[in-house]
Design goal:
There is one protein chain. Helix 5 packs across helix 6 and helix 6 packs parallel to helix 7. The protein has nine helices and twelve strands. It has a six-stranded mixed beta sheet, sandwiched between helices. It has a single domain, classed as Rossmann fold, CATH 3.40.50.300. Helix content is 28%, strand content 28%. Helix 7 links the parallel strand 7 and strand 8. The chain is α/β, with parallel strands linked by helices. The chain binds adenosine-5'-triphosphate (ATP). The site of adenosine-5'-triphosphate has 12 residues, from strand 2 and helix 1.
Length: 267
Amino acid sequence: MVAVAELAGVSVRRGQALLLDNVDFVVDEGQRWVVIGPNGAGKTTLLQLLSAQMHPTTGVVELLGEYLGAVDVFELRPRIGVSSSAIAVRIPGHELVRDVVVSASYGVVGRWNERYDEQDYGRADALMREFHVSELADRTFGTLSEGERKRVEIARALMTDPELLLLDEPGAGLDLAGREILVATLSELCLDPDAPTTVLVTHHVEEIPAGVSHALLLSHGKVVAAGPIDQVLTSDNMTSAFGLPLKVGIADGRWSARMDIEHVPTA
Ligand SMILES: Nc1ncnc2c1ncn2[C@@H]1O[C@H](COP(=O)(O)OP(=O)(O)OP(=O)(O)O)[C@@H](O)[C@H]1O
Protein backbone atom coordinates (compact mmCIF):
# COMPACT_ATOMS: atom_id res chain seq x y z
CA MET A 1 0.00 0.00 0.00
CA VAL A 2 1.16 3.53 -0.75
CA ALA A 3 0.80 6.00 2.11
CA VAL A 4 -0.91 9.21 1.02
CA ALA A 5 -0.39 10.74 4.46
CA GLU A 6 1.73 9.59 7.34
CA LEU A 7 2.12 11.21 10.74
CA ALA A 8 4.81 9.79 13.02
CA GLY A 9 5.10 10.94 16.63
CA VAL A 10 3.35 14.21 15.80
CA SER A 11 2.64 16.76 18.50
CA VAL A 12 1.33 20.29 18.09
CA ARG A 13 1.83 22.68 20.98
CA ARG A 14 0.53 26.23 21.40
CA GLY A 15 1.83 27.80 24.60
CA GLN A 16 0.94 25.40 27.40
CA ALA A 17 -1.72 23.63 25.30
CA LEU A 18 -0.95 20.31 23.63
CA LEU A 19 -3.34 20.20 20.64
CA LEU A 20 -2.02 16.86 19.37
CA ASP A 21 -0.02 14.52 21.54
CA ASN A 22 2.35 12.04 19.90
CA VAL A 23 -0.02 11.04 17.11
CA ASP A 24 0.80 8.21 14.69
CA PHE A 25 -1.60 8.01 11.75
CA VAL A 26 -1.26 6.47 8.31
CA VAL A 27 -3.70 6.96 5.43
CA ASP A 28 -3.11 4.61 2.53
CA GLU A 29 -4.12 5.25 -1.04
CA GLY A 30 -7.79 4.57 -1.73
CA GLN A 31 -8.86 4.51 1.91
CA ARG A 32 -11.80 6.54 3.21
CA TRP A 33 -11.32 7.69 6.80
CA VAL A 34 -13.67 9.29 9.26
CA VAL A 35 -12.21 11.23 12.21
CA ILE A 36 -14.37 11.42 15.31
CA GLY A 37 -13.81 12.88 18.75
CA PRO A 38 -15.29 15.26 21.29
CA ASN A 39 -14.98 19.05 21.04
CA GLY A 40 -11.37 20.09 21.42
CA ALA A 41 -10.02 16.60 20.58
CA GLY A 42 -7.70 17.97 17.90
CA LYS A 43 -9.64 17.09 14.72
CA THR A 44 -9.29 20.51 13.07
CA THR A 45 -5.62 20.63 14.03
CA LEU A 46 -5.14 17.25 12.35
CA LEU A 47 -6.86 18.49 9.18
CA GLN A 48 -4.64 21.56 9.15
CA LEU A 49 -1.60 19.30 9.13
CA LEU A 50 -3.11 17.08 6.43
CA SER A 51 -3.85 20.13 4.26
CA ALA A 52 -0.30 21.50 4.68
CA GLN A 53 -1.63 24.59 6.45
CA MET A 54 0.32 23.89 9.65
CA HIS A 55 3.61 22.28 10.64
CA PRO A 56 3.94 19.99 13.65
CA THR A 57 5.85 21.18 16.70
CA THR A 58 7.55 17.78 16.87
CA GLY A 59 7.33 14.64 14.79
CA VAL A 60 7.17 14.03 11.06
CA VAL A 61 4.34 14.63 8.57
CA GLU A 62 4.65 13.08 5.13
CA LEU A 63 2.02 14.11 2.57
CA LEU A 64 1.87 12.70 -0.96
CA GLY A 65 5.47 11.58 -0.71
CA GLU A 66 6.76 14.97 0.54
CA TYR A 67 7.87 15.93 4.04
CA LEU A 68 6.35 19.03 5.62
CA GLY A 69 9.22 21.37 6.29
CA ALA A 70 11.17 20.13 3.26
CA VAL A 71 8.65 20.97 0.53
CA ASP A 72 7.16 24.13 -0.93
CA VAL A 73 3.64 23.95 0.54
CA PHE A 74 2.32 26.08 -2.32
CA GLU A 75 3.16 23.21 -4.68
CA LEU A 76 1.67 20.64 -2.34
CA ARG A 77 -1.64 22.35 -1.54
CA PRO A 78 -3.21 22.15 -5.04
CA ARG A 79 -2.86 18.35 -4.80
CA ILE A 80 -5.12 18.35 -1.74
CA GLY A 81 -8.83 19.22 -1.98
CA VAL A 82 -10.37 20.78 1.09
CA SER A 83 -13.98 21.56 1.94
CA SER A 84 -14.39 23.43 5.21
CA SER A 85 -16.45 26.26 6.59
CA ALA A 86 -13.23 28.28 6.95
CA ILE A 87 -12.87 28.25 3.15
CA ALA A 88 -16.61 28.64 2.48
CA VAL A 89 -16.84 31.94 4.36
CA ARG A 90 -14.28 33.40 1.95
CA ILE A 91 -16.46 32.71 -1.10
CA PRO A 92 -18.18 35.97 -2.14
CA GLY A 93 -21.98 35.69 -2.01
CA HIS A 94 -22.35 37.30 -5.47
CA GLU A 95 -20.16 34.65 -7.13
CA LEU A 96 -21.94 32.40 -9.64
CA VAL A 97 -21.96 28.75 -8.62
CA ARG A 98 -20.19 27.65 -11.82
CA ASP A 99 -17.41 30.17 -11.07
CA VAL A 100 -17.14 29.00 -7.45
CA VAL A 101 -16.36 25.52 -8.75
CA VAL A 102 -14.15 26.40 -11.73
CA SER A 103 -12.04 28.98 -9.86
CA ALA A 104 -10.56 26.21 -7.70
CA SER A 105 -8.37 25.31 -10.68
CA TYR A 106 -6.49 28.56 -9.96
CA GLY A 107 -6.64 28.04 -6.22
CA VAL A 108 -8.61 31.27 -5.82
CA VAL A 109 -11.95 32.07 -4.23
CA GLY A 110 -13.86 34.64 -6.25
CA ARG A 111 -13.24 35.15 -9.96
CA TRP A 112 -10.99 37.95 -11.04
CA ASN A 113 -9.41 37.95 -14.48
CA GLU A 114 -8.30 34.33 -14.77
CA ARG A 115 -9.00 32.57 -18.05
CA TYR A 116 -10.48 29.11 -17.96
CA ASP A 117 -10.54 26.82 -20.93
CA GLU A 118 -13.24 24.45 -22.13
CA GLN A 119 -11.65 21.58 -20.27
CA ASP A 120 -11.96 23.48 -16.98
CA TYR A 121 -15.62 24.26 -17.62
CA GLY A 122 -16.22 20.68 -18.77
CA ARG A 123 -14.82 19.35 -15.50
CA ALA A 124 -16.76 21.89 -13.43
CA ASP A 125 -19.98 20.91 -15.22
CA ALA A 126 -19.30 17.19 -14.69
CA LEU A 127 -18.69 17.76 -10.97
CA MET A 128 -21.83 19.86 -10.63
CA ARG A 129 -23.78 17.01 -12.23
CA GLU A 130 -22.16 14.50 -9.88
CA PHE A 131 -23.15 16.57 -6.85
CA HIS A 132 -26.65 17.35 -8.18
CA VAL A 133 -26.13 21.12 -8.38
CA SER A 134 -26.12 21.60 -12.18
CA GLU A 135 -29.42 23.44 -12.08
CA LEU A 136 -27.85 25.96 -9.70
CA ALA A 137 -24.88 26.78 -11.96
CA ASP A 138 -26.11 30.29 -12.81
CA ARG A 139 -27.33 31.15 -9.32
CA THR A 140 -25.20 33.20 -6.98
CA PHE A 141 -23.55 31.32 -4.11
CA GLY A 142 -25.20 33.61 -1.53
CA THR A 143 -28.70 32.51 -2.58
CA LEU A 144 -28.11 28.78 -1.97
CA SER A 145 -29.38 26.79 0.98
CA GLU A 146 -26.80 25.37 3.40
CA GLY A 147 -27.19 21.89 1.88
CA GLU A 148 -26.75 23.19 -1.66
CA ARG A 149 -23.68 25.16 -0.59
CA LYS A 150 -22.04 22.12 0.96
CA ARG A 151 -22.45 20.15 -2.26
CA VAL A 152 -21.03 23.05 -4.30
CA GLU A 153 -18.08 23.29 -1.88
CA ILE A 154 -17.30 19.59 -2.28
CA ALA A 155 -17.54 19.85 -6.08
CA ARG A 156 -15.10 22.76 -5.84
CA ALA A 157 -12.73 20.75 -3.62
CA LEU A 158 -12.59 18.06 -6.33
CA MET A 159 -11.98 20.51 -9.20
CA THR A 160 -8.19 20.11 -9.17
CA ASP A 161 -8.53 16.31 -9.25
CA PRO A 162 -6.80 16.10 -5.86
CA GLU A 163 -4.94 13.04 -4.62
CA LEU A 164 -6.29 13.63 -1.11
CA LEU A 165 -9.74 15.01 -0.24
CA LEU A 166 -10.38 16.52 3.20
CA LEU A 167 -13.93 17.22 4.34
CA ASP A 168 -14.33 19.13 7.59
CA GLU A 169 -17.79 18.57 9.09
CA PRO A 170 -19.66 18.58 5.77
CA GLY A 171 -22.99 17.92 7.53
CA ALA A 172 -22.74 20.80 10.01
CA GLY A 173 -25.77 23.09 10.03
CA LEU A 174 -27.87 21.00 7.65
CA ASP A 175 -31.51 20.14 8.24
CA LEU A 176 -32.65 16.51 8.07
CA ALA A 177 -33.33 16.52 4.32
CA GLY A 178 -30.09 18.38 3.56
CA ARG A 179 -28.12 15.94 5.68
CA GLU A 180 -29.68 12.88 4.09
CA ILE A 181 -29.02 14.19 0.57
CA LEU A 182 -25.44 15.00 1.53
CA VAL A 183 -24.82 11.58 3.11
CA ALA A 184 -26.23 9.90 -0.03
CA THR A 185 -23.98 12.02 -2.27
CA LEU A 186 -20.91 11.38 -0.12
CA SER A 187 -21.72 7.66 -0.10
CA GLU A 188 -21.63 7.65 -3.91
CA LEU A 189 -18.27 9.42 -3.74
CA CYS A 190 -16.77 7.11 -1.10
CA LEU A 191 -17.96 4.01 -2.97
CA ASP A 192 -16.45 5.25 -6.25
CA PRO A 193 -13.08 3.48 -6.67
CA ASP A 194 -11.84 6.39 -8.80
CA ALA A 195 -12.53 8.98 -6.09
CA PRO A 196 -9.51 10.31 -4.20
CA THR A 197 -8.35 9.07 -0.83
CA THR A 198 -10.64 10.83 1.64
CA VAL A 199 -10.51 11.99 5.26
CA LEU A 200 -13.79 13.27 6.68
CA VAL A 201 -14.31 14.86 10.08
CA THR A 202 -17.72 14.66 11.68
CA HIS A 203 -19.31 14.99 15.09
CA HIS A 204 -22.14 12.62 14.28
CA VAL A 205 -21.72 8.93 13.49
CA GLU A 206 -25.10 9.07 11.67
CA GLU A 207 -23.36 11.20 9.05
CA ILE A 208 -20.75 8.59 8.16
CA PRO A 209 -21.29 7.76 4.47
CA ALA A 210 -21.37 4.21 3.15
CA GLY A 211 -17.96 3.27 1.81
CA VAL A 212 -15.98 4.75 4.71
CA SER A 213 -13.43 2.06 5.44
CA HIS A 214 -11.46 3.37 8.43
CA ALA A 215 -11.95 5.46 11.54
CA LEU A 216 -9.68 7.50 13.77
CA LEU A 217 -10.93 8.25 17.25
CA LEU A 218 -9.27 11.21 18.95
CA SER A 219 -9.62 12.52 22.48
CA HIS A 220 -7.56 15.22 24.22
CA GLY A 221 -5.12 15.26 21.29
CA LYS A 222 -4.41 11.54 21.56
CA VAL A 223 -5.38 8.59 19.40
CA VAL A 224 -7.90 6.40 21.24
CA ALA A 225 -8.18 3.94 18.35
CA ALA A 226 -7.44 3.84 14.62
CA GLY A 227 -8.03 1.24 11.94
CA PRO A 228 -10.86 -0.53 10.10
CA ILE A 229 -14.11 1.21 11.05
CA ASP A 230 -15.85 -1.88 12.54
CA GLN A 231 -12.95 -2.40 14.92
CA VAL A 232 -12.73 1.25 15.95
CA LEU A 233 -16.35 2.37 16.31
CA THR A 234 -17.11 0.09 19.23
CA SER A 235 -19.11 1.01 22.30
CA ASP A 236 -15.98 0.62 24.47
CA ASN A 237 -13.80 2.88 22.30
CA MET A 238 -16.49 5.54 21.93
CA THR A 239 -17.21 5.44 25.67
CA SER A 240 -13.54 5.96 26.36
CA ALA A 241 -13.22 8.81 23.81
CA PHE A 242 -16.30 10.74 24.95
CA GLY A 243 -16.12 9.94 28.66
CA LEU A 244 -19.77 8.84 28.63
CA PRO A 245 -21.25 5.32 28.44
CA LEU A 246 -22.23 4.96 24.78
CA LYS A 247 -23.94 2.19 22.85
CA VAL A 248 -22.78 2.14 19.26
CA GLY A 249 -24.44 0.19 16.48
CA ILE A 250 -24.95 -0.06 12.77
CA ALA A 251 -28.23 -0.80 10.97
CA ASP A 252 -28.92 -0.59 7.24
CA GLY A 253 -25.38 0.70 6.76
CA ARG A 254 -25.86 3.69 9.07
CA TRP A 255 -24.06 4.09 12.38
CA SER A 256 -25.73 5.28 15.56
CA ALA A 257 -24.48 6.17 19.04
CA ARG A 258 -26.71 6.58 22.07
CA MET A 259 -26.04 7.10 25.74
CA ASP A 260 -26.12 3.72 27.46
CA ILE A 261 -28.48 4.64 30.30
CA GLU A 262 -28.00 1.31 32.04
CA HIS A 263 -24.36 2.18 32.61
CA VAL A 264 -24.53 5.87 33.51
CA PRO A 265 -22.69 6.19 36.81
CA THR A 266 -24.93 7.42 39.62
CA ALA A 267 -23.73 10.19 41.91
N1 LIG B 1 -3.71 28.69 19.16
C1 LIG B 1 -4.15 27.94 20.16
N2 LIG B 1 -3.71 28.15 21.42
C2 LIG B 1 -4.15 27.38 22.46
N3 LIG B 1 -5.04 26.39 22.31
C3 LIG B 1 -5.52 26.14 21.10
C4 LIG B 1 -5.12 26.90 19.96
N4 LIG B 1 -5.77 26.44 18.88
C5 LIG B 1 -6.56 25.42 19.33
N5 LIG B 1 -6.41 25.27 20.65
C6 LIG B 1 -7.07 24.26 21.49
O1 LIG B 1 -6.66 22.98 21.02
C7 LIG B 1 -7.68 22.03 21.19
C8 LIG B 1 -7.91 21.30 19.89
O2 LIG B 1 -8.53 22.17 18.98
P1 LIG B 1 -9.17 21.64 17.62
O3 LIG B 1 -9.85 22.82 16.98
O4 LIG B 1 -8.16 20.93 16.81
O5 LIG B 1 -10.24 20.60 18.16
P2 LIG B 1 -11.49 19.95 17.42
O6 LIG B 1 -11.45 18.51 17.74
O7 LIG B 1 -11.52 20.33 15.99
O8 LIG B 1 -12.68 20.64 18.19
P3 LIG B 1 -14.21 20.93 17.72
O9 LIG B 1 -14.86 19.60 17.63
O10 LIG B 1 -14.75 21.74 18.86
O11 LIG B 1 -14.17 21.68 16.43
C9 LIG B 1 -8.88 22.81 21.71
O12 LIG B 1 -8.95 22.63 23.12
C10 LIG B 1 -8.57 24.24 21.38
O13 LIG B 1 -9.14 25.15 22.31
